[in-house]
Amino acid sequence: MELGLKNKTVLVSGSSKGIGFAIAESLLQEGARVQISGRNEGVLRDSLKILSERYSPLSIDSFCGDLNQPEIVNRAIYQLVDLFDGIDCVIANIGSGAGPSGWALSAGDWRSIVDVNLVGSMVLATSAIPHLKGRDNPSITFISSIAGVEAIAAPIPYSAAKAGLQQAAKNLARQLGPEGIRVNTVAPGNVLVPGGGWEAKMSEKPDQVKKYIKKEVPLGRFADPVEIANAAVFLASSKARFISGALLCVDGAQTH
Ligand SMILES: NC(=O)c1ccc[n+]([C@@H]2O[C@H](COP(=O)([O-])OP(=O)(O)OC[C@H]3O[C@@H](n4cnc5c(N)ncnc54)[C@H](OP(=O)(O)O)[C@@H]3O)[C@@H](O)[C@H]2O)c1
User: Fold this and answer.
1) Average pLDDT, integer, range 171-185
2) How far apart are CA 235 and CA 185, in angstroms?
3) Ligand 1 near 198 CB (within 6 A)
4) Exposed end of the chain (fewer CB within 10 Å): N or C?
5) What is the pTM assigned to this prediction?
6) 150 CA from centroid of ligand 1 (Å)
7) Interatomic CA distance for residues 94 and 70, integer angstroms
8) Structural domains counted in the chain
9) CA distance linking residue 218 with residue 206, whole number of Å
10) Which domain range does residue 246 map to?
11) C-beta of 188 in contact with ligand 1 (< 6 A)
């Protein structure tokens, strides 16, 4: 299927590893030009090397820095705009389900988790809007979580921040529709990411984790990061030209 992503320029925030890396690689497979990013210089360098061996290095930009800082976000955007003459699509992927469980949380706990999972993504997306205007089929896709859809075993501020992100995306889709900019959200279920939280839990308590997955996920397994990437790539593609304001759960039917 021709997805119309050839030579499109895509900023994928938080893409030196995990789901973001899989999204960046899937976009490169479709002929897009991609900016990958992360805070850890060594990890970013290794990822750039891997991708540059598999795809044209001329299609890959890399940015090292904390994309939860507004001024650094602007530097990443301008670096990409200068290199490829604009941006067609933003995939706001940064987020983390790490955090204290239970309800006895401090204001600081709430602020830091909401900052990482809601504020950072919105600042990135809205900073890029002036560059998306006037492009062919421009779009923004947020990577949320099913924790923002239903009450599952996740830190409460994470669930609340992701639910907020989904509502913000829906509102943004309505406000940006007249400009032709589409806004969508992907909500992954349990994703087995190398070096990620589920991998750690699997090595600590494999039987418990396997039992949980079998019980909670009708398809009976973890998602592979590429399966989340497929959804994000489709939403960025020309095949999704009339899809905006959508929330796509990629969770093996876990949510009811
Ligand atoms: N894994 C799951 O099961 C799962 C399930 C549902 C939803 N999600 C969502 O999917 C998204 C990706 O999760 P993941 O599991 O793939 O995460 P991950 O493996 O921890 O990877 C996160 C990526 O983002 C980068 N990053 C994090 N904070 C950053 C910052 N402030 N500035 C720049 N780069 C930053 C990381 O690099 P550095 O650390 O070097 O900065 C890394 O490249 C998140 O929004 C998460 O909430 C994940």
Assistant:
1) 98
2) 9
3) yes
4) C
5) 0.98
6) 20
7) 14
8) 1
9) 19
10) 9-194+224-250
11) yes
Pure H helices in the chain: 18-29, 41-54, 70-84, 107-114, 120-132, 156-176, 197-204, 206-216, 225-236
- CA dist 164 → 46, 167, 185 (Å): 34, 5, 12
Q: φ and ψ at 3, to 5 degrees? A: -95, -5
In a domain? residue 246:
yes
Which CATH number covers residue 109?
Answer: 3.40.50.720
Q: Is residue 217 part of a domain?
A: no
216 belongs to a structural domain: no
**At residue 152, what is the residue type?**
I
The reply to whether ligand 1 has any atom less than 6 angstroms from the CB of 164 is: no
* Per-residue pLDDT tens over the stretch 125-145: 999 999 999 999 999 999 999
- The catalytic residues are 158
- Could you tell me the two tokens for 105? 């949380």
pLDDT tens per residue across span 39-66: 999 999 999 999 999 999 999 999 999 9
Residue 91 corresponds to which tokens in the numbers above?
Answer: 């995939």
